[in-house]
Design goal:
Chain lengths: ~270, ~400
Amino acid sequence: MKRFAWIFASTFIIFPISVTAENTMQLTPEASGLAIAQEASRRNEGYGDTTVKLVMELRSADGRTRERVLTWKTLEAAQPGEGDKSLTIFHEPRDIAGTGFLSHTHVSGEDDQWLYLPSLKRVKRIASSNKSGSFVGSEFSYEDLLSDEVEKFTYRWLRDEPCGAWECFVVERVPVYDNSGYRRQVIWIDRAEYRIQKTEFYNLDDNLEKTLAFGEYRQYLDQFWRAHVLLMESIQTGKSTQLVFDTYDFKTGLTEQDFSPDTLKRIR
Amino acid sequence: MTARTLLVAAIALALSSIGHSQEGDLAGYAAFEPRLFFDKPAYQQNPKQGISASAVISPEFRYTWSEDSNRITVIPFYRYDEDDKNRTHWDLREANWQYFDGPWTWLVGVGKVFWGVAESRHLVDIVNQTDLVEDIDQEEKLGQPMIHVEHWSESGSLGIFLLPGFRERTFPANDARLRGPLPIANNDAVYDSGAGDQRVDAALRWKTSINNWDIGLSGFYGTGREPRFVPGVNTAGELILTPHYDVISQLGVDAQYTEDAWLWKLEVIGRSGQGDDFGAVVAGVEYTFFDVQGSNADLGVLAEYLYDARDETAPPTSLDDDIFLGLRFTLNDLDDTNILAGAIVDPDDGETVTLIEAQRRLGERWTLELELRMLSNIPDQGRLYGIEKDSYLTLRGSWYF
């Protein structure tokens, strides 16, 4: 679930308190954008590991809904230059209960992904080039859930403007990894805590394809902010997916072993 | 040590260590499953053509405690089939105690393991016996009594299996569909081992993932899961086939190389104990077109080559020199619709087994599956001769709880 990792990671996008509107003005837009992304990343350093349960509600254009219930676990990279690891375990629908999706994100190069099918006891490595594909039928593509490594994008600060209750940086970022379904994304980051409040996704034809809103931020361990409601809406199709998170557990002592393809069969 | 004593010991051991933070879970499914046979039966004993009804129930009990370091799993399985008394059967798919202690995993009781990477044939996967009456694709397995200890490290995991108690392969009843030309003496299996079905078999498994590679090595020494068939005459004077299970040694390698949208797969075994030593291989590739035409759907293309060097003294296989071609279509829609269609073809004589599996969810708790098993161009001397009139379509409605 690197896929998940990014959402989570992006929820902590934060900025250095020192980056104010004044001194961003003195930098080029590119340098400002990068500085903002780096500070957001820096503010999330040290989270260690997280475990959270969430409900994913898929809504079709005609209003039909389906629910998936899952547990999402992440492990912070042990060293800079490595990517985070994540594991998603499905609980509902019941016919896929116990199915695991393991992802090792890499700062450069392809990510690694494995699927665990509990009825067959089978662990399968799967292709990781489906960045733009739908994650379990949702409006989230795999890359939307990627671990939000700073190096995966180039940045450009566009402007500052109010967004909801906050004053926000507006930054454009362009994926530099292969197989992205996006030409660019525009993110709104509040200047108070450097949290992503909104993302617009532009497809390869540069048309606005989806918007993602982040809500109900809560702070953990006096440092780490996590959004607890994410709403992804597809502009083109009218479909949407909402993620509602339970309370996060931080630093529960997860290790590399918990994110190994060889231990996936411990799930069930 | 019989399977029963092993199970009792496991449960006693587990119960003795139950402490705080227990958590129980009941899940499972029940299914209604009519099968439609297209052709008239080949043999007079076959009761009828047309639709044959069947039903399955398989609850799953799980109980964990001590911060999830201990787990008991019990998964019974029962099928009723109106026309095949052998297919009406029950099994313990799993009944085991697992203990997780840092890098160590213990499993004692009846368990299930899977080894391998290929799609058309599971060559290296040898621990669990095939529950053949379930599906001729041989993917359904019987529970196997075992003591399994595994040690994990970042460089790979190493597992040792002790397998007390042999499970006989299941075969259709002599008056049922999918039987061969001669009846099989189901209850009179003959063993190479003097211990019969009580021999303790052993297996070893090493597995690792490095960069783009997933690699497994395995070894097995014990009663082979595949029987050969010895013709004879029963007390009623009828010609019958008696399953003979030999003691074999098998070494296996399975590997997958994953890059971009390509999966390269290889399984190889070498086996001794069934006539001359022989080797067999499955090698193939899977390529996936993601988000086809912007539809959200994925299309996977699979191709595998199968070769098996065994001679007439070994258990028969129809997969001696065959090609598998398949398509996997995943819609990525609300109801997880997916379709797998494939055919295993023998280029020499055109013998073809076609398999189509389609599945979707209905609401949150129901799934609907269609499975087609088509046998065509079966030559008179072919391994599949005798079941060529038994192509069938299964419709399965499953309710998950």
